[in-house]
Amino acid sequence: MSRANSIQFEEHFQVRKTTRFYPRVQVDTTGCAAVRQAGGVLLTDTIRAAGLDRALSEALARWRKPTAVHDPAEVVLDLAVSLALGGDCLADVAVLRAEPGLFGPVASDPTISRTIDALAADAATALAAIEVARVTARARVWGRPDTQPGHRSRSRSAPSRSARFRPRLSLSW
Questions:
Q1: Residue 152 pLDDT > 80, yes or no?
Q2: φ, ψ for residue 116 (rounded to 5)?
Q3: Which of 51, 7, 11 is nearest to 27 (CA)?
Q4: At a CB cut-off of 8 Å and minimum separation 6, what does 83 contact?
């Protein structure tokens, strides 16, 4: 590989502007080690594809302050992703905060604590709202025609991967 081509590949990640919680990431692993938090990227892509980010944002809208920078749903989802990556306390979202190119802006520890306090103040209602969002996202995923048993793909040769493998995502708080 020539020096010019080598320089061309030094930019490994490309983040586009997004209106969603997590930026869409394109990874070029040419000449570098694999991304350390690949599982987190897969999880955020799954959250986005299932519509859980939007559903949770709608469900937790009553807890969003008018001047807030971080949506309560974003905080809850960041905590869920940090737990999936092995975290065991609120401060472990620092793993996500350390990778803004992959996970976007992550709330500070005090903001996370205030959000959790606000949700805990009316825990029954907050948990019910989270359940509504979960059910909404699950219905969206399972309601897709290409995820239903017996669905025929456009290709006549073999069913699509999504028709053969039924997705399963379970987030419990």
A1: no
A2: -65, -40
A3: 11
A4: 92
Smallest CA-to-CA distance from 109 within 78, 144, 149, 73 is with 78
Q: Which residues pair with 26 in a beta bridge?
A: 14
Kindly report, residue by residue over 66-80, the tens digit of the pLDDT: 998 999 999 999 999
In this predicted structure, what is the pLDDT of residue 76?
Answer: 96
What residue spans define the domains of the chain?
A: 35-146+158-164
CB atoms under 10 Å from CB of 140, counted, come to 15
Q: How far apart are CA 123 and CA 126, in angstroms?
A: 5
33 has pLDDT over 80: no
Q: What is the pairing mode between strands 13-15 and 25-27?
A: antiparallel
Instruction: Yes or no: say if 145 and 151 are a contact pair by the CB < 8 Å rule.
Output: yes
CA torsion sign, 49 to 50 to 54 to 57? negative
Can you name the residues that pair with 27 across neighbouring β-strands? 13
